[in-house]
Structure of Uroporphyrinogen decarboxylase:
Amino acid sequence: MPSADAPLLRALRGDRPETAPIWFMRQAGRSLPEYRELRVGTRMLDACLTPDLAAEITLQPVRRHGVDAGIFFSDIVVPLRLAGIEVEIEPGRGPVFASPIRTADDVARITAIDPAEVAAAADPVREAVRLTVAELDTTGTPLIGFAGAPFTLAAYLVEGGPSKEHLRARAMMQADPDSWHRLAGWLSGVSRAFLRAQIEAGAAAVQLFDSWAGSLDPDVFRRFVAPHSKAAVQDLPVPVIHFGVGTGPFLGDMRLDGVASAVGVDWRLPLDEAAAIIGPDTTLQGNIDPALLGAPWEVLEQHVRGVVERGRAARAHVVNLGHGVPPETDPTVLTRVVELVHSL
Ligand code: CP3
């Protein structure tokens, strides 16, 4: 068990530890040469379901950067694979499904699968988390588990693959609301089962990724999306971080009525403005601009100092990027950002 005094867990509870905790979304992965070496010859989803490989990839950035948390190496589509759905991750592209879910019949077929199937097939996930947590415990570093939010999963599933504006999922909501709610409710159960498996095996906090929620207007987010995201994470025994890109127009709703301990903010919205919207009961996470990881150090340093300064307006702050680490990032820059934040 990580200590309850771990800076990440304190910040999620609303305390302000002596130094702000920091971790990076997508810290495990392509920016690390040791990751690229381990992944040779193994498909992404096979790597996710090979326990010793997933554990080692999760640990690499923690050892290298000295971040305040591990983020479990997996993918938002792993629980769908565990439910028996044909999905692959195409390098450079993203998740691709053999059969898109577009009609009421498609929805009826997929939602006939019991989300308990995910729990039953999740032993490789539990084993990977156990191996990871055994090593993280030697330094008291917490592991963050995660899952995709129903809308972001549906954005891939309805389209059949990556899309820019997620038109088909957004159309289904209003053209056939019954099918939409059935699908989103089912995805919520699937992600919840995936989260529970990680928590049972030792994850100390979880993050729900609604990466593409920024394509929704506030009213649609409230009516068609938020209730399903809330159902995925409410009453879990660990703190919940809720993240999306471009969610400024409905940031307050990202609290999920207080179910989320922390809300992630992308680089577009200054944290002091985000704090004014989010209020005194929720921690903020973010929001270093990933684009600046490639800028001269002086530029990046000023920016990071500004993010930490503005973050003081929130009840507590978990430093992170506004979205994931770009694959071409020089990893020594990430280590330097961690050292800087820990020195402030
Ligand atoms: O370090 C971490 O953050 C943990 C691992 C993690 C991965 N995917 C590993 C991964 C996490 C948290 C995710 C979540 C995920 N997957 C999200 C939400 C987070 C976000 O970035 O908004 C989304 C939208 C996906 C779907 C997905 N999987 C995409 C868009 C891609 C990239 C495709 C590409 O090649 O550009 C993936 C593949 C993926 N997931 C990789 C990694 C390390 C790259 C796989 C590789 O090495 O080829």
Remarks:
- Residues 25-30, 39, 44, 71, 73, 75-76, 89, 91-95, 146, 152, 209, 211, 324 surround coproporphyrinogen III (CB under 6 Å).
- DSSP finds 15 helices and nine strands in the chain.
- The longest strand covers residues 143-148.
